[in-house]
Amino acid sequence: MHINRYIDHTILKPTTLIADVEKLCAEARQYAFAAVCIPPNFVKTAKSLLQESTVKTATVIGFPFGYSAVEAKIAETVLAMVDGADELDVVANISAIKNGDWLYIANEINHLMPVIKSKHKTIKVIIESGVLTNDEIIKCCDIYGAAGIDYLKTSTGYAEKGATVEAVQLFRRYLPGQAQIKASGGIRDYTFAKQLIEAGATRLGCSASVAIVQGAPATEGY
Fold first, then answer.
1. Is residue 150 domain-resident?
2. In the annotation, is 89 catalytic?
3. Does the annotation count 153 as an active-site position?
4. What's the whole-number mean pLDDT along residues 109-119?
5. What is the rounded average pLDDT of the residues 143-157?
6. Annotated catalytic residue, options 73, 139, 182, 194
7. What is the count of structural domains for the chain?
8. What is annotated as the active site (predicted)?
9. How far, in Å, are 105, 111, 196, 204, 217 from residue 70 at the CA level?
10. Catalytic annotation on 182?
11. 220 in any annotated domain
């Protein structure tokens, strides 16, 4: 399976130090993870540390609650791309979703998509599936699938419930085939990571990435 190739090696705590980012990037290079995901203020640092590697630089937009104004998210996105971000993990306005304001949700993503795609970057939309009903998740799949996003992502890691196999399966059932799935939040061991991939996830957001890789069967390698 080469599980390392699925992993976005992540550190997003508010007390993140430059030393933490340096360690994260060194581990990402060592294990050939898909990407690192770091706070926006460390994008330039990570990009520099990952030069001449295959590891992408990802950052978060509107993190962690998603209720920034659309204009603020656009400004964050532009600055992140200027700093060198390859991938943008954008938190949807969870409050708008819970209030059933689907016009707002559609407007938000339709303003963000041209900005991101004009620079040929990857967009992952985080909907915090652990606090949503199945009907709300399905509606998100419809709207974001139609918008042409690259990934729908389960969680920020800041809600009371993170990734579940059931949420990933639901995403896969209702997203169009070209839309991929990123599972994140509470993924701490190889067994759970493998279950999420088998359910349909093609990326995993993890802070316990090294432990997950080291827990893989020797025959899988990395």
1. yes
2. yes
3. yes
4. 98
5. 97
6. 182
7. 1
8. 89, 153, 182
9. 10, 8, 31, 26, 44
10. yes
11. no
